Amino acid sequence: MITPNMHYADLKDSYLFYNIAQKTKAYLEANPDKRLYRMGIGDVSLPLCDAVIKALHEGVDDQATKDNFHGYMPECGAPFLREAIANYYAERKVTLAPDEVFVSSGASDELGDILDLFDRSSTALVIEPAYPAYVDANVMAGRRIVHLSSGEENGFLPMPDDSIDADILYICSPNNPTGAVFSREQLKCWVDYANEKGSVILFDAAYEAFIEDNELPHSIFEIEGARKCAIEICSLSKTAGFTGTRLGYTVIPKDITRNGMNLNSMWVRNRTTKTNGVSYIIQKGGAAVFTPEGQEQIHKNIAIYKNNAKVLMEALDELGIWYCGGKNAPYIWMKCPDNMSSWEFFDYLLNEIQVVGTPGEGFGACGEGYFRFSTFGSPEDTVEAARRIKELLKK
């Protein structure tokens, strides 16, 4: 009899967002006349911008003619898109070769797949609160996990602990769920730590486009020494609304070598073995994101989400509730009032004012007592949710 991967038995019984979905489903079945204001799951609400839609249509039309038809795409990404992404980095004075950029079907997929590069005996360090998939993907692999807690005392931006030895370092900035963003000086500490220990940083930059403070880094490769120790994973889901079309990219510099193995070359071998590339049509749409027209249009959409954050932040400021995030990120991480647990606060908002957020406990033990709001909803729903939150919590 075949033996399954028994590490799956070590996973938590259910996924955070599945629990939220079950609770909201039960509430609506019991209260069919009520309408929910959903600010929990970070799915976008605005459509793809015009430049992308135009490019997607062109891609479809190309598939209808013999001269322009594309079958299998290069496994590591179409040259036109890899070059466009490298040029995007160059605008921030980060020099990348196009073959250091790998096109993917999205950051979530890549964050799991990238673990193929590392032996299962390696140790993963996860800064918590954290996106649950960081932990779950390593549990599935049977990898040892070190949990580095953060809190209000350090703005949910902890520094390296020299007493901890870890091989894979997860850093998400701007952070999901807290919305906190590491400064250049703070990231330099992590880069120095990784180079000293021989570790590799997995830098999740899915929300870099939301940074408005010019002093904050958008990419780990803005930091000296990062080319020798960091892999950057990014997504067009939140940047450009590709949640339903699935597209992202991963940057692996050729400088990263461990035990005589070059990680860039290893990833080329991995992708050419395990994938047949991302759809030409989707890559055609993705390339439009990096045109001047595309950049202007996606930032207009981002400005709408950031105004949603402003509305929520003003409500919390009026209530005198501690929070972080919002300004440079699409998430607001607030402290639950009256010492409520995060799930108690979830139930309170759902039952009293029909507002749905995300309990902090779902992002790790040190998320208990905190709550995440996503700002990807419609402006109208956000304004109404903020009004209801103020009215309820003023009591």
Protein model, in words:
This protein is α/β, with parallel strands linked by helices and 395 residues long. The protein folds into two domains: 6-48 and 294-393, Aspartate Aminotransferase, domain 1 (Alpha-Beta Complex), CATH 3.90.1150.10; 52-291, Aspartate Aminotransferase, domain 2 (3-Layer(aba) Sandwich). It has twelve helices and 15 strands. The chain has helices at residues 16-30, 50-62, 79-90, 107-113, 132-140, 184-197, 237-240, 263-274, 280-289, 292-319, 342-353, 379-393; strands spanning 37-38, 101-104, 123-128, 144-149, 168-172, 200-204, 230-235, 248-251, 257-258, 261-262, 323-325, 331-335, 355-356, 358-359, 370-374. It has a seven-stranded mixed beta sheet with strand order 2-8-7-6-5-3-4, sandwiched between helices. The protein has a four-stranded antiparallel beta sheet with strand order 11-12-15-14. It has a two-stranded parallel ribbon with strand order 1-13. α5 (132-140) links the parallel β3 and β4. α10 (292-319) runs parallel beside α12. It starts with 15 loop residues before the first helix and ends with a helix.
CATH class of the largest domain: Alpha Beta
Q: In this structure, how is the largest beta sheet organized?
A: 7 strands, mixed
Q: How many DSSP helices?
A: 12
The tally of structural domains comes to 2
> Helicity level, as a percent range?
25-40%
Low-confidence stretches: none
Q: Do you know the CATH architecture of the largest domain?
A: 3-Layer(aba) Sandwich
Strand content range: 5-15%
Number of strands: 15
Sheet with most strands: strand arrangement: 2-8-7-6-5-3-4
Q: Summarize the helix and strand pattern as letters.
A: HEHHEHEHEEHEEHEEEHHHEEHEEEH
Task: Determine the structural class based on helices, strands and strand pairing.
Answer: alpha/beta
Mean pLDDT: 96
